[in-house]
Each structure stands twice: as C-alpha cells, then as structure tokens.
Amino acid sequence: MMVALIFHTSGFATIGGNPDNMCLSCRQNNADLSNEIRRLAEEQHRLMALQNILQEGLQRLGITVSDIPSPNEIQQGSKNQTKATPYVGSAQAIPVVVIACNRVTVARCLDSLLQYRPAGTSFPIIVSQDCGHAETKAVIETYVLANPGVVRLIEQPELGDVQGVSDQSQQGYHKIARHYRWALNQVFKHSETQYEGAIIVEDDLSVSPDFFDYFSATFSLLRNDSSLFCVSAWNDNGLPEFIEESRPELLYRSDFFPGLGWMLTRRLWDELEPSWPSGYWDDWLREPPQRRGRSCVRPEVPRTETFGRVGVSKGQFFDTFLKKIHLNKKYVEFNSLDLSYLREDNYESVFVDRVYGLPTIVYDDIINWSFPSPDSNEFTILYHGSRNQFVGIANAMGLMLDTKAGVPRTAYKGIVSVYYKGKRIHIAPGREWKGY
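Request: output the structure for the sequence above.
Response:
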C-alpha cells in the first residue's frame, strides 16, 4: 500500500519565534496520521493473509477462485436478478440465521438468499460460523463487506470437543447442537433487536424465489396458533414424482419436524433452550415431550434444496432422495392468499374429513394401478395404523420409509399425502387412529 504524504512547510504557527515551539496540535495531527498509516498497513497484511489462506484452501478442495463471486460481481449481479416482490407481511423483522462451519460453498447459499431477499430491513442475514475455518470465514467476509447492514458474521467461540462425548465419531452431532444453541441464544437473548422469530438455514441450502414471501405470510399464523411449533420450507417426499408441481400454493400441516429451512418463534426457543440436548437436536425435537402434539406447516413443492452431500451425516439419503428434491420455481404471492385453512380448528374439516370421505383403494390397486373410480383423481388407501402395512405401501410407491418417534415423514394424524402418477393419494391409518 503506497501512501503519499504532503507536508506544507510554510505558515506554521510559532511561539515566541522559536520553531521548536511548533503548535502541539500539529504534532498531534502528525502522530495521529502515523498511527492511521500503521493501522492501514496492518489491515492490508491481514487481508493478504486471508486471501492466501482462501486460495490455498480452495485449491485443496478443487475449487477455483473464479467460482466465488467478488463483492463487485455480487453487487452487479443483483442489478440483473429478478427480485422478489416487496415485503408486505408483518413489520417485525425476521432474521435469517445461516448455520455455517467449513464449507466455502456457503457462497452458493448466500447468493441464493441475496438474490430473492426483498429490499429493506425485514430479513437481515446473520451468518453464524462454527469450526474456526479460515477459508470459509474469508468467503463470508466478502459478503459482509459487499452487503453492509444486510449480512453480518457472528462466530461461535467454543471450538473444542464437547465434554462427556468419548466417541469421536459422535462429536460432530454434538458440536452442531452446541452451535445451534449458541446461535439461537445470540438471536433471541443477546441481540439488541428483540426478534420474535427467526428462519434457520443451513449453509448447504438454496432457496426458491418466493422463499421470503412464504415465511412472511406464515409468520402470524405461527405466532397465533398454539398448535403449531414451526414452519418449514421442506417436503421430505418432495421429489418430482410425488408432488403436484402445478399447485405450488398448496400447504399442509405435518406432525413430522422437517427442518432444512425452518422458522421458529422466540416463545418456542424460550421453552426449548433450558433442556436443549447435547446432540442430535433434530431427533430430540421430534420426540413427544418437545413436540407436545403440535405440528409444522410444510409446502407441497419445496422452497429449499440441498447441495451438501458431504457433512456429519456422511451423505445419508443424499443420492437416493435429497439431491432429487424439486425446488419450486414459480413465484406464489402467499401474502395475498387466505391461509386460515391451516389453523387447527379449520384443518380438521378442510383436510382430515375430506381424506376419509374419498373413495378408498387397497394395496393391490397401487401395485396394479387399477382404481374403482377411474374418473376420480383423488383416493385414500388405508393401512389401519400398522407400521408394516404403511411401509409396504410406501415402499411400493418409492416414498421414504423411516419414522421418527413413530411419525412417518410428512404425516399429519398418521396421513401421508402425495401426488403419484397424476393422482392424489392419501395413505391414512383410518378414523380409529388413536395416535403415534
């Protein structure tokens, strides 16, 4: 860094005609200038070191620097991107908390969020980084610099192993739980802004064009309906062969916590935080003592997709399901829709009663693709609460088979709904269902 210093030697004020008595303020100014030059030089060295670390890390990962946009490219790109419609929901700001660790590809996640984020202050982006990974931090800092007042970085300070976990293969799951607890405490308990809700996005997710409209429209529903505990952007059965892509406005209640882009309230965090687990936080959240009979809202067509094969779970389900999830591309103005049908008191008649009023089919009808009412496009197949029967039907259709705390993925009161070969199929346990 070259700094030109110009000293003007004439006109110095003197005391008693003695040059040695040059005014103290001028001496102070020179001292301040020297300190500023020293500070700028140190900052330059720090940035150069970060750049070298980033380049070395990217080379090890087989990624070229050109794959990471510069701040100028980000700003220029934003001018050419189709922005979401202005935020028209609650005036309450809802931060998007990006959970990051050691993926430099967090750039892809941030690009997606910034592309569709509405103008204004409604959705600040807080990147919470664990792991102390310098290359990833350098990438995040480019976005902080390019988006002042929009993106900021916070760093989880406790980087060592979680105490009491002797199995090193389990440390990753426990560090993630520790990071979530710390990050959510920063947002809800230690922030100057009293946020009433937050959207959690992992660093390997991309979002849909209407991602922000979806969450802003459902925020008041989440706050006011005590039978809900989250809103999720994810559909576990969101593969193209199981969704009705032409109906992206369809939303459901689900007893299964989906995660992968989800919103919670301050009220829920105040409830969960005192007993937050040391590991496997998502499975813990699905257990009855935490869920307490409450549901989440989830979409027919997913509003997030994941590109993170490599992670703590070592790619479980990634190739068979996760990478095939269909990300919605059609913008839905959820803020202009009446979503009151999702309230618990309405949903019983809107959804449950309708499911059990449809023509019923049996397992063989799915296998043979033969239906008693050929003109009907919606059917219910009963499994009478038997997990083995449910698994047989789901396996025949290619759905996800696993359950958590007895709840099938996407299920509401035991009902799993999919769009299969042009027909809406509800896999239901029967009216006699008593619970999971």
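The first strand starts at residue 96 and ends at 100.
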